[in-house]
Structures are given as C-alpha cells and as structure tokens.
Amino acid sequence: MAYNGKRGYVSNDNISIPLFKNKWLDKLTRSHISIPVSLFFLYAAGLLYYTKLVTELSNSQVVALFFGGTLFFTLVEYIVHRFAYHPGEHASESRQKFCYTVHGIHHDYPKDKQRLALPPVASVLVATILLLIFRLFLGKYAFAFLAGFMVGYAMYLLVHYSVHIFRAPNNFLKALWVNHAIHHYSEDEILFGVSSPIWDYVFGTIPKNEKKKTSVEVKAH
C-alpha cells in the first residue's frame, strides 16, 4: 500500500497509469526487466576485468571485495527502501508526492511489469555516480567492490520481479515471496529487505505476529 495524495493508502494489482502527461517522458519511467539486469551484469564483468588489468590485487582480495560489495548492497537496499521510499504519514506533502512518484506507484500497481526495474537511463546514471563515489573513497579497491554491489543490484531486480510476477517456489526461497507479500498487502512499515531479510532481523522490522505470515501468504498467493 502507498500514499497517493488523494485516495490515501491504496493497492491495485493489475493496472497501470502514466506518471507523466508527456508520453516520451513517461516512457523513460518504464523498462523491461532484462535491460537493467543485463546492463548491471555486464558492467560488473567489466569492472572485474578492469580490476585485474590495472591493479595488483590478488584473486582472494578481489573475491572478498566482490562479496563485500554484494553484502553492502543489501544494506543500502534496506536503508533506501525504509527511509527514502517510506517517509510515513507525517512527512510533508512535497515529500509524499516525490516518494509516490519514485516508489509509491509501485505499491498501488505492484504487478505493472514495466515498473518493476530501474529504467535504462536511470540505470546508467546510477552506475556512473556509484563509480565516482566508490572510486573517491576506496581507490583501487572500488572496482571489485562496485562489481559486487552491481551484481547485488541485479539480483535484487530479479528477485523483486519474480516475487511479483511468478508463483512462490516450494523451497527456502518461498520466504522472500511471503515477506514481500506482507510488506505490500498487510504492513508496509516492516520487511523492507527484498533480496534478503538479514537487515530486517538486525533492525527489528520483522513481523511480531508469526501467524501473519500464513494469513498473508494465503491471501496473496
């Protein structure tokens, strides 16, 4: 559920609306899942190749930096989702509108396939900004670390797309479907981790009532 400024908190599954009146501008807010995922995987591969080409880092260092970057992404995912995308009912009207544009519309229309991934223009922009930031603070270690971060990002996009479009599997991954269903259809102030629940456990944003998982699972699937 999400605040839209007029109807309060709502949730609709199978329809979509334009974000902008200009059709070309609105097209920039849409993307097929394969485009940003492919860009991020290719970018990560290029960063790893560049790391081996221009640095003296050992293979073990590269692997450690890569997985460190992946873990760091899960933390950033949690922080952004919780504090940037869900401002709360007491946030200013302007902030509510901004959050609705970048994320709230997804809560209103969670099965809109074209808005389940970052659009290509935004993907390239984000990748470039992250490279500049990581290079500034990490120096030669930035490339392998960012490669892991971008793979984490790509995996997040795949998980997020899957939990909205496909039925939950009958294995340990089912928990990701259930957790995100609770976040969308029951309480949007808990379970902010999409690709991993680790930070929800760390920061205490997991359901206090275990029965909720079963009831929401039945409702959502």
Topology overview:
Elements: E1 2-3, E2 9-10, H1 23-27, H2 34-54, H3 59-84, H4 93-108, H5 120-138, H6 142-165, H7 174-185, H8 198-203, H9 211-220
Antiparallel strand pairs: 1-2
Helix pairs in contact: 2-5, 2-6, 3-6, 5-6, 6-7, 7-9
Describe what this molecule looks like in 3D.
A hairpin with a 5-residue loop joins strand 1 (2-3) and strand 2. The chain has helices at 23-27, 34-54, 59-84, 93-108, 120-138, 142-165, 174-185, 198-203, 211-220; strands at 2-3, 9-10. With 221 residues, the chain is mainly alpha-helical. It has one domain.
Average pLDDT across residues?
78
Fraction in beta strands: under 5%
What is the string of helix and strand elements? EEHHHHHHHHH
What ranges have pLDDT less than 50 throughout 5 or more consecutive residues? 1-14
- Give the helix tally: 9
What percent of residues adopt helix (DSSP H or I)? 55-70%
Alpha-carbon Rg, integer = 18 Å
Question: How can the largest sheet be summarized?
Answer: 2 strands, antiparallel
The best one-word shape is globular
Main-sheet strand order equals 1-2
Q: For the record, give the distance between the C-alpha atoms at the N and C termini, rounded to a whole number.
A: 17 Å
How many domain units? 1
Number of separate strands: 2
**Secondary-structure class:** mainly alpha
